[in-house]
């Protein structure tokens, strides 16, 4: 089932994102955990590609397991890193061969220690070129990345929005945002996207905080900001892991409820292969999800 079909209704569509672990043991653990993640009720689970140092080849294996063994919907992330058009074509054939219907199309990050993204000779420099290639290849649902606080390399917010528009015009069905911790940034982003004529569903991406060090590292890497009161709360919690967990779950649940009440098409949770925090968040937002379903029936 392709993205368009998921987002055709009134929503909200909940999706989860996992990454392929680097080791066989990690992969086995994730494969064991996937059925429990599925039970939490997302509509589909996406699998990252080469992000956070993970190996690319495991993405197809995990996405295929979700689709063909668990009988569940999935999306395979794909980047321009290390692959020219011929390699992309070969990968798309493999992905289609596994019966996977959706791709999250990205440029990918520069390798560690390098500031600048360099495509392979003859390769794609921007995600919009990958989107166009996937569209030419055939029948996939396509999602692209959007940045409520602009992409780190973009000179300014408006220029970045123009580039997002190119990706949508190249054939994307859906925009999933980079993580953010202040909903006002998302609401402003959506407003500007609509003004630019970007009319596809824009789905907020939320990453629950697991630890202070982890969240500082990730937000530093992707250019997202942590609101000062939240950072202060986390720093006051110090090494008390349970307290950090509680603050993280509560903050993400509060963000999710407000987003659901605002009528978002869905929420994409970066679950980082964990179970307990996302289980608690799903539990906390269940009434808001029910409320949206009821108001849909009434309407
Ligand atoms: P692009 O849209 O190509 O943009 C990259 C930069 O180039 C931006 O600054 C943009 O403004 C600029 N730009 C775009 N077009 C032009 C143009 N024509 N001229 C000049 N400048 C231009 N990374 C992974 O490695 N694997 C993953 O699985 C992965 N999954 C992700 C999922 C989501 C939902 C998100 C939000 C990000 C994900 N990332 C992943 C991270 C992503 O690869 C990085 O953020 C990367 O730096 C940019 O990717 P992009 O697709 O947004 O690139």
Please explain how this structure is put together.
With 299 residues, the protein is α/β, with parallel strands linked by helices. The protein contains eleven helices and eight strands. The protein has helices spanning 3-6, 24-39, 57-69, 85-97, 127-137, 157-169, 183-195, 212-222, 228-237, 241-262, 276-298, and strands at 13-18, 44-47, 74-78, 102-105, 141-146, 174-179, 202-206, 266-270. Strands 1-2-3-4-5-6-7-8 form an eight-stranded parallel barrel, surrounded by four helices. Helix 4 (85-97) crosses helix 5 (127-137), helix 5 packs parallel to helix 6 and helix 9 (228-237) packs antiparallel against helix 10. It binds flavin-adenine dinucleotide. Residues 48-51, 77, 79, 104, 106-109, 126-128, 145, 151, 153-154, 160, 163, 166-167, 176, 178, 205 line the site of flavin-adenine dinucleotide (FAD).
Largest sheet: 8 strands, parallel, barrel
Q: Ranges with pLDDT <50 over ≥5 residues? A: none
Q: Report strand order across the widest sheet.
A: 1-2-3-4-5-6-7-8
Give me the strand/helix succession: HEHEHEHEHEHEHEHHHEH
User: What is the beta-strand fraction?
Assistant: 5-15%
Give the distance, in angstroms, between the N- and C-terminal Cα atoms.
26 Å
E-strand count? 8
> Hetero groups bound?
flavin-adenine dinucleotide
If you average the pLDDT, what whole number results?
Answer: 94
Keywords:
299 residues, alpha/beta, 8-stranded parallel barrel, 11 helices, 8 strands, 50% helix, binds flavin-adenine dinucleotide
Short description:
With 299 residues, the protein is α/β, with parallel strands linked by helices. It contains eleven helices and eight strands. The protein is globular.
């Amino acid at each position: 089932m392709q993205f368009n079909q998921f987002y055709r209704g009134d929503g909200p569509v909940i999706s989860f994102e996992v990454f392929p672990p680097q080791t066989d043991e990690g992969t086995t653990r994730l494969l064991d955990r996937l059925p429990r993640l599925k039970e939490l009720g997302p509509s589909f689970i996406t699998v990252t590609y080469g992000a956070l140092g993970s190996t690319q080849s495991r993405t197809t294996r995990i996405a295929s397991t979700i689709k063909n063994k668990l009988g569940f919907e999935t999306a395979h992330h794909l980047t321009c890193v290390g692959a020219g058009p011929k390699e992309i074509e070969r990968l798309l054939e493999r992905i289609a061969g596994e019966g996977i219907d959706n791709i999250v199309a990205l440029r990918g990050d520069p390798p560690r220690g390098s500031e600048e993204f360099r495509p392979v000779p003859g390769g794609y420099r921007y995600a919009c070129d990958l989107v166009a290639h996937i569209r030419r290849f055939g029948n996939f649902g396509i999602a692209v990345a959007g940045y409520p606080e602009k992409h780190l390399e973009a000179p300014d917010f408006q220029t970045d929005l123009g580039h997002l528009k190119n990706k949508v015009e190249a054939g994307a069905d859906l925009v999933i945002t980079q993580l953010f911790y202040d909903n006002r940034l998302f609401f402003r982003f959506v407003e500007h996207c609509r003004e630019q004529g970007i009319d596809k569903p824009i789905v907020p991406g939320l990453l629950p905080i697991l630890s202070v060090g982890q969240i500082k590292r990730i937000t530093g890497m992707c250019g997202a900001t942590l609101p000062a009161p939240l950072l202060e709360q986390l720093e006051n919690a110090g090494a008390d892991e349970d307290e950090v967990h509680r603050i993280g779950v509560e903050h993400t649940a509060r963000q999710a409820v407000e987003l659901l009440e605002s009528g978002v098409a869905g929420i994409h949770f970066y679950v980082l292969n964990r179970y307990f925090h996302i289980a608690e968040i799903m539990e906390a937002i269940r009434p808001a999800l029910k409320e949206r379903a009821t108001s849909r029936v009434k309407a």
